[in-house]
């Protein structure tokens, strides 16, 4: 089993097989529009623009579980991210990442790369880096800025 075995819902309600991203390096992020880490959208977009032509994708999963910091609808989140941060990477429907209603994708991600003290996601903008084979290669805390991932991304992008 790997990340490509999951189907998720895009922010328009359509089913998306992650197998559509097969062969690409992925950065999967749970986000929120009203968080102190929200400016990380700029870094995520910069990474996306820099590496998307080399087989890299950012997958954005809004989540309202942490401080109610993503209360908007999927359409409102899309509008906010596009107008304020000019994001162009794929965004999916709002999900839960912890608890009984956690997304199956996030249950899998957490099982593959446990956190320092707990497997649970601690806050918005936790990042999972996935290699070209769909294996979870690394997990990064919300405090890790996207731009600091460039070397690791280049390493994974170079590994065919």
What is this entry, summarized?
The protein has 160 residues and is an alpha+beta fold. It is 26% helix and 18% strand.
CATH architecture designation? 3-Layer(aba) Sandwich
Unreliable stretches (pLDDT < 50, length at least 5) are none
- Helix percent reads 25-40%
Structural class: alpha+beta
Q: State the name of the first-level CATH class.
A: Alpha Beta
Number of strands: 6
Question: Could you characterize what this model shows?
Answer:
By secondary structure, the protein is an alpha+beta fold. The protein has one domain (about 5-160): Glutaredoxin (3-Layer(aba) Sandwich), CATH 3.40.30.10. Helices cover about 25% and strands about 20% of the residues. The chain has four helices and six strands. The strands form two sheets. The chain has a four-stranded mixed β-sheet. The two termini are about 20 Å apart.
SSE blueprint:
Elements: E1 7-9, E2 15-17, E3 25-31, H1 40-51, E4 56-62, H2 74-85, H3 104-112, E5 127-130, E6 136-140, H4 150-158
Parallel strand pairs: 3-4
Antiparallel strand pairs: 1-2, 3-5, 5-6
Which descriptors would you attach to this protein?
6 strands, two-stranded antiparallel sheet, four-stranded mixed beta sheet, alpha+beta, 160 residues, 4 helices, Glutaredoxin
